[in-house]
């Protein structure tokens, strides 16, 4: 087998370079009167955990490699289907300590796979020692296999799309997650323009990532879901790794002043448009449009709007039904930016049932020019937006958002690596982590309320 290079992140290169200098100096030092009189260096010794032949390895057990009398130069992890069917996956990456004496896998193992770990270390004379461990990973039991839903609105509007600067990463699972910290640690977010961000949980099946500030515009973001082998709950394991990629487009920010009945649109720092609007009337609390940052969620044409979704019958004097030309959803409680040709109070008074009423031509412009995730900031209504109403995630201040993260630490999106660890307990006979473990810093290859 031809050795493959150990994959390392840029953040580790400087430390490892210093370690290499130390090793080189050591190789040139005389052994004096001790050791082999010929001056030959002792052979490197390599140990791998899980041990060779193990048949009951938990999917979330870490792989560890340790070396004595030498430095680790190569680790290759092959994960194959039982019986050797299909091509083996060699994408697992790991993290080396500064001495190059300990290597720990970044991610967990694919349930049911046959794994071969090949590790190489060099002694001070450059002589190589190779060690191999072959073991079998326990399969995930039917009915206890965590999977990511791919048919949700958030996923449909995110994966492979161009989005606004406020767009969150929303991951919905098919089963409840108890070990939220491990699952967080397995979901790696990398952006071309570095920032810091964190995950929050809304219930046990939804995880949401957002940066501290809006995404910088014009960049690509990649989300690697390294969930295969992560124990999300007792006996429940993730079964598949997957990735999401999206483009952050131009920065378009909309502010709507409830008291002034006025909308302002800015794009890339320049004022672009101004529109007269009419928001929710204050005759009933349920009609007041919420203040706070909303996000564009969906766009519709010829969209039926009615309060019959709230149980209001057609014979009720408060009943309404309209089909609007253009409608842009900004919450899950029925708030839209939409055409309202019947409203003669645009720019003068708030007369709607909770939506933002606009002229037809103005609403068409908003429809045409909006991307999912564009921020819509409504101010001065006196009724606050809820954090879990649609995509109201930006109404939670950053400090509070960070506190609600299961790991409690921000993620640096500048390169691969996450806070915490996706692993469970090491397999018996495995090595120990000397502080550089966890998910590491190596590259991962490894009901309606508003209305018209």
Number of helices: 5
Q: How much of the residues is beta strand, in percent? A: 25-35%
Q: State the end-to-end distance.
A: 68 Å
Structural class: mainly beta
Main sheet overview: 5 strands, mixed
The CATH superfamily of the largest domain bears the name L,D-transpeptidase catalytic domain-like
User: Quick check: average pLDDT?
Assistant: 87
- Overall helicity: 10-25%
Counted beta strands:
27
> What gyration radius follows from the Cα positions, in whole Å?
28 Å
Compute the number of structural domains. Answer: 3
Give the low-pLDDT segments.
Answer: 1-35, 428-450
> In order across it, which strands form the biggest sheet?
20-19-18-26-21
CATH class of the largest domain: Mainly Beta
Shape: elongated
The CATH architecture designation of the largest domain is: Beta Barrel
CATH topology of the largest domain: L,D-transpeptidase catalytic domain-like
Note the topology.
Blueprint lengths: L9 H18 L17 E5 L14 E5 L2 E10 L13 E3 L5 E4 L8 E9 L5 E9 L8 E2 L6 H6 L3 E2 L5 E4 L7 H6 L1 E5 L4 E6 L4 E6 L7 E7 L5 E3 L2 E3 L3 E7 L3 E6 L4 E6 L2 E7 L15 E4 L2 E9 L14 E9 L6 E4 L16 E3 L1 H10 L5 E5 L18 H6 L7 E2 L40
Parallel strand pairs: 8-16, 9-17, 18-26, 24-25
Antiparallel strand pairs: 1-2, 2-5, 3-6, 4-5, 6-7, 10-13, 11-14, 12-13, 12-27, 14-17, 15-16, 18-19, 19-20, 21-26, 22-23, 23-24
Pfam family, one: Big_10
Organism: Nocardiopsis suaedae
Protein name: Ig-like domain-containing protein
């Amino acid at each position: 087998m031809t050795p493959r290079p150990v994959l390392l992140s840029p953040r580790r290169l400087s430390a490892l370079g210093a370690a290499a200098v130390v090793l080189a100096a050591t190789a040139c030092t005389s052994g004096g009167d001790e050791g082999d009189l010929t001056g030959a260096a002792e052979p490197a010794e390599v140990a791998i955990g899980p041990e060779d032949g193990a048949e009951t390895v938990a999917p979330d057990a870490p792989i560890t490699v340790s070396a004595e009398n030498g430095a680790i130069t190569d680790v290759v992890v092959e994960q194959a289907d039982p019986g050797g069917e299909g091509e083996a996956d060699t994408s697992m990456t790991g993290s080396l300590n500064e001495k190059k004496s300990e290597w720990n896998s970044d991610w967990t193992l694919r349930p049911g796979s046959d794994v071969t770990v090949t590790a190489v270390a060099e002694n001070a004379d450059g002589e190589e020692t190779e060690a191999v461990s072959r073991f079998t990973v326990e399969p995930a039991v039917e009915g206890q296999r965590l999977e990511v839903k791919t048919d949700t609105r958030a996923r449909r509007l995110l994966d492979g799309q161009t989005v606004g600067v406020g767009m969150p990463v929303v991951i919905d699972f098919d089963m409840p997650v108890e070990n939220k910290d491990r699952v967080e640690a397995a979901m790696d977010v990398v952006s071309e323009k570095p920032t810091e961000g964190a995950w929050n949980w809304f219930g046990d099946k939804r995880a949401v990532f957002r940066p501290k500030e809006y995404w910088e515009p014009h960049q690509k973001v990649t989300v690697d879901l390294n969930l295969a082998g992560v124990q999300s709950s007792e006996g429940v394991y993730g079964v598949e790794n997957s990735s999401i990629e999206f483009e952050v487009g131009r920065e378009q920010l909309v502010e709507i002043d409830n008291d002034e009945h006025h909308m302002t649109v800015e794009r890339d720092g320049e004022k672009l448009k101004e529109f007269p609007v009419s928001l929710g009337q204050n005759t009933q609390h349920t009609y007041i449009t919420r203040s706070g940052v909303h996000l564009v969620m969906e766009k519709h044409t010829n969209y039926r709007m009615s309060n019959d979704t709230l149980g209001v019958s057609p014979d009720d004097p408060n009943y309404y039904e309209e089909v609007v030309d253009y409608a842009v959803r900004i919450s899950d409680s029925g708030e839209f930016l939409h055409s309202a040709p019947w409203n003669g109070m645009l720019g003068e008074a708030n007369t709607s049932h909770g939506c933002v009423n606009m002229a037809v031509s103005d609403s068409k412009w908003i429809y045409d020019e909006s991307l999912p995730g564009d921020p819509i900031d409504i101010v001065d209504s006196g009724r606050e937006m809820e954090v879990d109403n649609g995509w109201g995630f930006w109404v939670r201040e950053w400090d509070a958002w960070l506190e609600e993260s299961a790991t409690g630490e921000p993620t640096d999106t500048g390169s691969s690596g996450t806070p915490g660890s996706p692993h469970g307990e090491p397999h018996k006979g495995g090595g120990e982590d000397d502080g550089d473990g966890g998910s590491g810093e190596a590259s991962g290859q490894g009901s309606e309320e508003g209305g018209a």
